[in-house]
Amino acid sequence: MTKQTHLILGFTGGIGRAVASALNKRNIQMKVLVRDAEKAAKYTTGLNNIDIMQGDGSVQEDIEKAFEGVSHVHYCINMPYQKWEEQALKMFKICVDASVSHNVKLIFPGNVYVYGHAKYNPVDEKHPHAAHTDKGQIRMEMEEMLTIARKDNGLDYTIVRMPDFYGPFVINGFSEQLFVNAIKGKTMRWIGKLDVDLELIFIEDGGEAMVMAALSEKSSGEVFNIPGCGITTSAKYLQEIADQAQSKSKYSTLNSDFIFKAIGLFMPVMKELVEMLYLKREKLILNGQKFIDTIGPLPATDYSTGIKKTLDWTKSYYKL
Asked: What is the CATH number of the domain that holds 97?
C-alpha cells in the first residue's frame, strides 16, 4: 500500500478529533490545519504521527499548503448555525477545489438534514433529499458540489452520513453541558419531545466509520448511512446520564417555537435552532446495511458504555 497522509480540517471539533483517534490506532500519518495551535494542543493528548499546521480553512493559500503531500482529506469543519449561510459553501468549495487539483480523496461527514421529514424508517441512502430547512438546503448544495466535481473533474469522495453526536470533545454548548450539569447535580436542559424514538452516535464510532470508509477502495463516489447503536428516547438517554453520574440530576425540556423565537431575539443561535426542532420531535432512524455490505461491521458503542466514557472525559477535561 502506498504511504498515506491524511489531512484533517476541523481537528478541534468532536468528529475531527475522533477521526484523528481512528487514524492514530492504525499508525497513519496525519496533518491538522488549525487556527489556534494552543487550543489544538489540548486535543493531541494520546495521539502520535500528527503534524500541526497553523492556518485558516477559509484561506485558499493556507489550504493549498496543507494539501501538499496529502492522500486523503477529512472535512470536519463546522461553524455556528448563524454563520452557515455566509460561510459554509464558500469554505467547502475551497476544499473541494483543492481536492481535485491535488488528486486527494475527500471524506465528508454528512448529516440527516438533507432528508427533511422521514418518509419511512429506517432511512436508507435511497430516501429522497427533500430538505425543508435553510440549513438542510445548504447541506444539499454541499453534497451536490461533490457530485458535480466528480462528474466534471473525477473527484474521489465519500459521504458518511450520521445522526447527532455525543461523546468526548463534542463541545457545542449543548451536548457537553448535559454531562457537566449531570456531574454537578444540576438540571439537564433538552429541546424537543422526551418520548420520541431517536438515535445518537458515539463520536468515536463516527470517526471510526469515516476512516473505514476512507481506506476502502469500494467507497469512491458512495454515500453511507451510519446509524447509532440502537433506538432510544430522549428521556432514556438523559436518565442514563443521570444514573451514571450518581448526582440525582434531573432533566427538563424546551419544546416551544414561540419561546425559542423570543430567546432568539437575544441569542442568535437559539433563533437558528427553531427550524431544526423537527429532528427532536419526529422519528428519523438510519439504515446502515449498505455500509455493512460494502465495508464491514458498523462501529456501535452501546449507550451505557458511551455515556460512561463521556462522563469520564468530562470530569477530566473540565476538572470536575
From this structure: 3.40.50.720
